Amino acid sequence: TLRLPFKMFSSHYKLGDPCPGHPYKGGTFHAYLPDNRNGQKTAVLLKKAFEQGLTFQIKSVDGEERVTWGHIPHKTSLDGGKARNGYPDAQYLHEVCTVL
Question: Do residues 27 and 37 lie in contact, with contact meaning Cβ atoms separated by under 8 Å?
Answer without folding.
Answer: no
